[in-house]
Write a structure and sequence with these properties.
It is a single chain. The protein is mainly α and 322 residues long. The protein has two domains: 248 residues, no CATH class; 49 residues, 2-Layer Sandwich (Herpes Virus-1). The chain is built from 13 helices and three strands. Strands 2-1-3 form a three-stranded antiparallel sheet. Helix 2 runs antiparallel to helix 3, helix 3 packs parallel to helix 7 and helix 5 runs antiparallel to helix 7. InterPro entries: Ub_conjug_fac_E4_core (IPR019474), UBE4 (IPR045132), Ubox_domain (IPR003613), Znf_RING/FYVE/PHD (IPR013083). Its main location: cytoplasm. This is U-box domain-containing protein. Pathway: Protein modification; protein ubiquitination.
Length: 322
């Protein structure tokens, strides 16, 4: 197998460095990526495009081809704009399908874990839910692989060739897609995406996916203020609180994807109560201003009994105001 890999690599190197291909290899791939939209089965196109993405990644690692791609991107020709539009379409669909499948898995497995609730269902209802679960498990593996690869493509394009994304035709759509998915991954309902043994079963690593989305934000923010305007124009999903939650997740400042049990918001400063419950400090402190009791068992509770519940160390300079 290793010998075969070496042979394939040598053949690839031979092909891409033939003088006649040096200036011509990108355009057919752009065209093929776009043409897959109409010339193939809807689901088959994602498999084809993933193979093209692998080629792109290999070419991107070669200095000459990367420089040609950056030149084409900066020129913002119609062929390249169409290609990028298809990439954004794919990222939107693949992320939506991945997160929808994860939610189905979460919902069904949550009911199945409650033996009494599961036993109370009619056998036909159980079979329907089992069918939904199996379909979702089968689909999510593929969708997540395709989604992560497509985000990786967007990542290195926005890092090294951000010019096309400053255009109205692409900028608005990309900003809306990023905002929508950050809201799904880090918003109030993020716990609905939590499933058992996620990485082992489905290669589902939410922090890494959040990191890929945030990388695209940062790449375009470093290029121009224009993209910030596109983000602000998105009235549906634009939410600075959700982006703050994303930063919390990436910086390990709080327990990842664990909401406050009372307010259902991502905890910024988790503390443990004597009863063992964990709450965000600001919410329990607000409760204690009205009542010196534990909201879970009504036992007497004071601020001094709250213990910090951190995975890592607290960032320097972060203090509590009385």
């Amino acid at each position: 197998l290793e010998r075969l890999k070496l042979v394939i690599r040598d053949i690839f190197q031979l092909i891409v460095f033939i003088s006649s291909t040096l200036h011509k290899i990108w355009h057919p791939n752009f065209q093929f990526y776009s043409d897959a939209e109409a010339g193939t089965d809807f689901y088959e196109k994602f498999s084809i495009r993933r193979n093209i993405q692998v080629i792109f990644q290999c070419l991107w690692n070669e200095t000459y081809y990367r420089s040609v791609m950056i030149y084409l991107a900066r020129a913002c020709g119609p062929e390249f704009i169409r290609f990028i539009n298809m990439v954004i379409n794919d990222a939107t669909f693949l992320l939506d399908e991945s997160l929808a499948a994860l939610k189905k898995i979460h919902d069904v497995e949550l009911v199945m874990a409650n033996k009494d609730e599961w036993a109370a269902l009619e056998r036909e209802e159980q079979q329907q839910r089992e069918s939904i679960l199996e379909d979702a498990k089968r689909q999510v593996r593929s969708w997540l692989i395709y989604a992560k690869d497509t985000l990786e493509l967007l990542g290195y394009l926005t890092r090294d060739a951000p010019q096309p994304f400053a255009q109205d035709v692409l900028g608005d759509r990309l900003a809306s897609m990023l905002n929508h998915n950050i809201a799904q991954l880090c918003g109030r309902k993020c716990m609905e995406l939590k499933v058992r043994d996620a990485a082992e079963r489905f290669q589902w690593e939410p922090r890494k996916l959040v990191g890929q989305v945030v990388d695209v934000y940062l790449n375009l923010a470093a290029f121009s203020d224009t993209f910030a305007e596109f983000i602000a124009h998105d009235e549906v999903s634009n939410n600075h609180i959700v982006r703050g939650s994303a930063l919390e997740i990436l910086s390990h400042e709080s327990t990842p994807f664990v909401p406050d049990p009372v307010m259902d918001t991502l905890m910024e400063d988790p503390v443990r109560l004597p009863s063992g419950h964990i709450m965000d400090r600001k919410h329990i402190m607000r409760h204690l201003l009205s009542s010196q009791t534990n909201p879970f068992n009504r036992a007497t509770l004071t601020e001094e009994e709250l213990e910090p519940e951190w995975i890592g160390s607290r960032p320097l300079g972060r203090k509590h105001n009385c």
